[in-house]
Amino acid sequence: MALDVSVDLCGISLRNPLVLASGIWGSCAETLVRVGRAGAGAVTAKSCSLEPRQGHPNPTVLDWGHGLINAIGLSNPGAWEEKRILQRAAVGLKEMGVPLIASVFAETIVSFQRTVEIIAQAEPDLIELNISCPNVEDEFGRPFALDPIMAAKVTAAVREVYKGILSVKLSPNVPDIVQVARAVEKAGADLLTAVNTLGPGMVIDVHAGRPVLSNKVGGISGAALRPIAVRCVYEITQAVSIPVIGMGGVLTGEDAMQMLMAGATAVGIGSALYYYGEAAFMRILGELEELMVQEGYSSIKEFRGCAHG
Amino acid sequence: MADGLHRVFPLMRRVEEGKVGATLIFDGELKAQPGQFVMVWLPGVGERPFSVVDDAPLTLTVARVGPFTRALTALQEGERVWIRGPFGRPFPLRQGSAILVAGGSGVASLAFLAKRLCEKRTEPLVILGARTEANFMLTWFFERMGLCPLLATDDGSKGWQGTAVERLEALSQPWRELIYGCGPERMLRALASSAVRHGALCWLSLERVMKCGIGVCGHCHCGDQLVCRDGPVFSAEEALRLWRLEARDNPQIADREDSERYP
User: Fold this and answer.
1) A7-308: CATH, from 3.40.30.10, 3.20.20.70, 3.30.450.40, 3.30.428.10
2) How far is residue A116 from each of residues A12, A263, B58, measured CA to CA in Å?
3) Full-model pTM
4) Residue A75: its chain B contacts at CB < 8 A?
5) First to last CA, chain B
6) Is A133 a catalytic residue?
7) Taking CB atoms and an 8 Å limit, are A63 and B41 in contact across chains?
8) What are the tens digits of pLDDT across the range B214-253?
9) What is the ipTM metric for this complex?
């Protein structure tokens, strides 16, 4: 019996559940197409803002032994150039039937709307809102993602100006991620992406006597994030009825199966590209299929969410 | 597991390189192959990539181009730097007679290659290009191995007047089996086209502004390749493909490269 690893994400058909996560290999059209060619089920471009951003000075990313820590600083060429990049990527990806996800962040709600309006012109299959960026209108400059009310406000505001499929990327750095997930669902999100990086964390070089990252702190990804991400996806899918792209430290087929069993519809792949390059996709997919054979599954829906019992 | 973090290296000796930079010889070894690079961190100043000139002891050659390289080349003996790496794909080592063509600070990675080739008793022919006589670096390193690099300067102040690639093409038997090149992009483009035309096996070390150095941030992409991870060494054919990909969507790049000169 042939294995069916295809999944349906809000009506978008993915040949397999593995999605390139935002922020890695997604800063130019050619690498997005390359990841599509390497077997990704869908690809997400790097987050973009209305205006170009330089990002933080080096050091920006480190392999600290059990995963990555990064403070790249959301460097991007701005929405107008990003629109061009997405349009070019879409041409190559369409030939392969690989959906393209755009990612947008902003520091104000109005800026979220403006950026989405520009990015929507490139007609990506889906737009993801990265709401882990600090909200400059908040009294304490807290990220939108940390407050259910602000997260819902951004979602509702973007919903007004964008009729396409909309995802909101949640942060694991909250006491109750379910509250945020519910608020965002109610505000009109079609699906959720969970989770963004953990932390922030800090690595201190003891010889230098100071943090290694120029930004001092950075988001934790990779293996160290995985159990937290799986728990978040489990809790969210129990509480909402919209699909979830589960991500956080998925490095093997077994990790991907954990995410799917926790209830994810698709699985994001990020740090795995640091370890395996674009071969990560075929490697993880191969391992997932092998596990499906071992466990007697012929399609993903047979075990999706089974951990909820 | 913590190979991705920095190791501390005290400076053992500094050799001034003309007016343009310095070679830093550190107290310690870092196993590397020619063509690879390391990230050098000066806490509070910044972190930049540098080609490995030698791995035992770790040696780097630094052209002074900005605040970071000025700070690095001003280090005194015993002062420390923080290094992670090596990263990137090295030059493939093949049997056969090789020509090494370096422009400007591109001499660094080819000096290491020359050393490895000499250790295998296959002495390469080395051609070094610089803007002017005072800009040559590492000539002593080649001479110490018994090699006599052919020199070319833009202004004719030393050796042949013209570029390193023009010097190569002026040789009576220019196309040996293997060509290795490192230097400004304009020079590499000329070298790649010539090598492909003559059917020589040719590898080039490309340069892009790198940040993370480990294939994560995406800063150093060239076409569909990440220079830090997939390179920096590419075959001439692959480099030509990448430049075409880049130019197809960014017509302004061709103009930028035309104005690029040796440091």
Assistant:
1) 3.20.20.70
2) 20, 28, 49
3) 0.93
4) 217, 219
5) 38
6) yes
7) no
8) 999 888 999 999 999 999 999 999 999 999 988 876 655 5
9) 0.91
